[in-house]
Write a structure and sequence with these properties.
248 residues; mainly alpha; transmembrane; transmembrane helix; Membrane protein; UCP010219
């Protein structure tokens, strides 16, 4: 290795890390997405802790979720994370209103978390880790990592295991509290567990992917193939035209 090689390799590694960080922020919503995830639940538990009014707490949580979506629409920003928050809060509100139990506001989200944990684990066991399905399009590699990039598939498998086990650990804390704790206690623990497990899972995903081979840009490959095909057709047409002129 020459003195010029190492800076080049370091630059490539830095570029790969930067691309990975940007992709993770895009996929998981970044700081703003985390804030939007926490705010409705925080508002619900704060209001309920103060006045024990299920209807006021539920409506306030739903209203702030809708406001977050409207703000994103006005700013012409992506709304997928805010919309998912609205649907999650709406399910919780409907469920709590139907049962009359304020703790049931949290139950749909807890069930979703458990299902997501199982999905990460099961898809990894089946050889199609969920985190790869989520991030593949973001990295413009789609499913190429499954057959053409084994090192990347291994990284996705490790990341999916991390997500699955972290979410299972979170469920192991929350479900007993659902039965034993009151609404305020469960709510504050839920708020406390919103961000740290998420950040841990994202950090581990970044660690695994930063060490993995670079993604194969299948979109660039398709564009290159289309360009090559167009050039071949143009060359064939030019050759055919030349033959006609010679024969004429």
């Amino acid at each position: 290795m020459t003195s010029l090689d190492k800076p080049t390799e370091d630059t490539q590694q830095d570029d790969a890390r930067a691309v990975t960080e940007a992709a993770l922020f895009e996929a998981f919503g970044g700081v703003r997405g985390m804030v939007e995830t926490v705010m409705p639940g925080l508002l619900f538990v704060t209001i309920f802790t103060i006045n024990k009014d299920l209807h006021m707490a539920a409506i306030a949580a739903l209203v702030v979720s809708v406001i977050l979506v409207v703000v994103r629409l006005v700013m012409k920003d992506t709304v997928k994370h805010a919309f998912s928050g609205v649907f999650g809060v709406a399910f919780g509100v409907v469920f709590a209103m139907m049962t009359g139990n304020a703790k049931d506001f949290y139950l749909p989200g807890m069930i979703y978390t458990l299902g997501l944990a199982l999905a990460y684990i099961i898809t990894t066991l089946c050889g199609v880790p969920l985190i790869g399905l989520i991030l593949g399009p973001v990295f413009k590699e789609n499913l190429s990592w499954r057959t053409r990039n084994p090192g990347r598939k291994t990284a996705y498998a490790k990341a999916s295991w991390a997500w699955g086990l972290i979410l299972l650990a979170k469920c192991a804390i929350l479900f007993p509290l659902y039965w034993w704790a009151d609404t305020a206690q469960l709510g504050w623990v839920l708020v406390a567990l919103k961000i740290p497990p998420f950040l841990l899972a994202v950090w581990l995903t970044w660690v695994f992917l930063a060490k993995a081979p670079a993604p194969i840009d299948v979109f660039a490959e398709m564009e290159a193939e289309e360009k090559a095909e167009a050039e071949r057709k143009a060359a064939d047409a030019a050759e055919a035209g030349g033959r006609h002129r010679r024969e004429g």
